[in-house]
Amino acid sequence: MSRPNVLFLFPDTHRGDWMPYAPAALAALGMEALPLRMPHIEALMKQGVTFMKAVTSSPLCAPARACLASGLRYNKPAVTGNHENYDLSRKTFYSVLKDNGYRVGGVGKFDLHKATHWWGLDGWIDDLSLLGYTDAIDNAGKIDAIISGKESPKDPYMSYLYKEGLADVHLKDMTDRGQRTDATDLPDEAYCDNWLTRNGVQMLESFPADQPWFLMVNFVGPHEPWDITHRMKADWEQVQFAAPNSSSVPEKTWNQIRQNYAAMLENIDRNIGLLLEAVRRRGELDNTVIIYASDHGDMLGDFDKFGKCRPERGSVHIPLVISGPGIQKGQYSDTLVELQDLASTILDLADLSMEEAQDSISLKSVLRGEAGSALREVQISGLDEGPQHPSSWRMASDGEWKLIVERDRGDRLYHVQSDPWENRNVAEEYPEVTVKLKAALQGL
């Protein structure tokens, strides 16, 4: 068989427990089934391996994506926050694919040069070639697009809206949106995830038939603010969700936010169907690895918090599903995964490697069901103080216990098998566990 293609589906801010998991898997997370509508993701889960204990390297866009690109844990790529760009002298797994004959494409929000508010009006700057891309339409994220594009476009999505006479509609809608959940007046075809999916389909159709390809689709949803179209709003406004964990937020607030969040996930799933159909038209589904993951989650009202940057489950737990040739079907795995592991996994599936990706462990053995495929004993995530996050912390978990070490706050230890929502701090009761997990954080 020829080297596999890779379709990497990567939404922004999809928390790991908001997935169409089987009942037993939901029970392990301490959850009941959510009224999600994600048939394409559900189908991929039946065709591949679903990782239940995947965490982000860092729950903030630029650091997470830097860790993914480099195969390194937080801090090591020197992108500690959204105010720093990825060092172009540092190798990426994208460049390894490119150097070994892959067509390497990407659409959507890359966030590898987030601190520089210029993406090129066609989504291409020379930095992307140095990062390893052969084809790219890199657009700003939700907030960056309107901040940079108030007077004139700085990225391809705002350029498109200006050309269509829709920029004022979008700018007016996004101004002071906050926790507003009313619908945007943008037509469906101009909604960003729909626009960037069309770019992805067109890019895929342009790839030559005799060359292996990698395509990363970086959706901007379900990132806040929770703006959705009128069509999306109508489909969800009567749906009731379970309450956030340990929250005093009014029900009207959290339920409407959760409705819009679910609507964005459904829309992403619909767009995934369009991308899969494009692969099918090329006759390449049987030789394409399909990966679904996210950079981080969202608290969605848990502990009265919304957004990311936190060490709690809603923020650091991410979805991860991998399917494709030679991969087990319909399996759930408790393997302790960190986001940067996908760098070595993708390369390994292409029979390649990257020595610089020192913290990235290939999941290939798990995907193929090989015996004795436990990979790491402790998984780690972290974030340091920055312009958007006033606290520094590290998280370490062995799958049974989870330790949070946060500056200006005492150590927190949770027995996540019996307390999956992390409500009861038992650090004083189990000091030996705290010591063991803290040792895994040394030198990070």
Automatic annotation (TrEMBL):
InterPro entries with a match to the protein in the record: Alkaline_phosphatase_core_sf, Sulfatase, Sulfatase_N
Matches recorded under Pfam families: Sulfatase
Sulfatase N-terminal domain segment(s): 4-351
PANTHER family: ARYLSULFATASE (PTHR42693:SF33), ARYLSULFATASE FAMILY MEMBER (PTHR42693)
Family the entry assigns: Belongs to the sulfatase family.
Identification of the protein by name: Arylsulfatase A-like enzyme
